[in-house]
Structure formats: C-alpha cells, structure tokens
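RECORD TYPE: protein structure
NAME: Sugar nucleotide-binding protein
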Amino acid sequence: MKLLILNSGHCLSLALAREVSRRADMELVIEQDTTITAAQLHEIAPDAVVIPPLAQPLNMTPAEVGAHADAVDRCLEACLAQSVPLVWCVSDQLYEDGFDEPIDEHVVPTPRDECLRRLVATGDRIRAAHHRHLIIRLGPLFALEGSHAWLNEMLDSLVTGQSVRAAEDIVCCPTSVDAVAMALVGMLQQQACGANAWGAYHLAGTEPVSVFTFSSMVRTQLATHLEGRGEQIELGEVTALNHHHDAKLRRVLNCRRVLDVFGVHQKPWRLEVGRMLDAWCLTRDGQQDASTGESV
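PREDICTED:
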C-alpha cells in the first residue's frame, strides 16, 4: 500500500514516516508542498492522499486558513480526477463553542468564526463530491518535532525558564501524533482490504483536561525526568489564562465510532507524554555527548 502525505514538515507527516518505516507492507511518499495536482497523482499513483491539519486555526490569520482551505480544494479536485481516496485531518477547534457532552461524528461543526466556516465549507464539498474520503477530527496534537507539534515548543520554553501561558477554562483531549499515525495506517489498511467505511471519524486522547492542567502535568513530568537524570534546572512556570468567564468551554470528541468500526483505541495522553519525555531525554543525552566530544 502506498500513501502520499503532504506538508513534509508537519508533525503528523514525520510521525507517519516513522510508523511506515517499521512496516514492510507500506510505502510512504512525502511531498513538501501542501497541495497536489492530478498529473502528480497520476505519476505517484498512491492508494490514498493524507492532508495534515491546521492545529490551531483560531490562532491563525485569515490568509493562512484560507490558503489551507484552497490547497485542500485543489487536492479534492486532483483526487476526484484520479479516483484516489482523500484523508483530511482537521482540528477540534472547528467546534468553536464546544458542547456540554462529548461530540459525536454526525455533528457537523457550525462555527461563528468566518475562517472556521471556510474550513467547514471545504469539508461539505468533500462529503458531497467524493465518496471515498475520511475526515478525521483530532484533539490538540502534541509531538516532539515538526510544525504544529505543541509539546516541543512547551518543553523549549520550560527548560529556558520562560513561562507557558495556558487556558484554564478550555477542556479538550490532547492527542499524541504518534497515536494518530498508527491509527491512520490501521484504518487505511482496513479500507484497502474492503472495509468501505468512509466518512467522518473522531480521534483524540483519553481523559478530558484543561489546557492549563495538561501543561502543568507536562511541567511536573519534565521536572521528574530531569531530577532522575541529576539535572537541576529552574523550569519556567505555567500561568493560567481565562477566556470564558461564565463556564468552561468543552471540546471533547466522542471516539466511539472509530473504535466500533476500526477497533482503534484512544491513547492515554499521560502515558504518551511520558514516553515522549523519555525520548526527549535520550535526544538530550546525545546532544550533550556530542557537545562534550567536540570540546575535547
């Protein structure tokens, strides 16, 4: 099976590359650009095209969001021309105002923000025009490398003593990019074997948590890892922000359908953060060893 993923520097692209490299039954082609033409698709002949998400479209300029939507529209046209399945990953921020209850897949986002409405319109076109599509709505992604990775920027700020500002009144389900990559590979493999289960799916981490609590737990785990290594670093603080004074805004995705259809389980974000911090420490050791070797 051959996958084509766009936007080579995106954290999801890098995670998919790692996941596919461990398998002998898959091939991954990564394009640096954020869109593709029908001619390129004809030449590459992939079994599916994967478009990584804008992680925080609410924090981006209208021009950036519009450019992403235009790129997805062009990908849709190319995929239709070549009869190639399209996988588009989108942020949970499309559910701008959240819901009191976990959000099911059949609930199409109806945001007030004009930029978000532009993304929803693109999703409507995909659903109407292309039967073989997957729209994967994701919780906030975290990873150690790549764009839109969140965790790497947080760690860099903390270890250099900078404060991390995090919303205390927004509840979400932080999502490991490695878990998303593993799930996408499994889902597409089942589709290639005839599952024919196209449509919208939700994929997020377990345990809804405020952005402030998540960031604070990252800081706590980081301090534990550093202390275990014998490092004494004055970490930056996590400071709380409040945007919604009347009640907490909840963006909690119900991921029951992806479990029922594909057998994909959500990954606990605490365990995923711990695993990534282990990897971060190993990388840090390697960098320190290289620095010591250069100075000898």
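COMMENT: The chain is about 45% helix and 15% strand.
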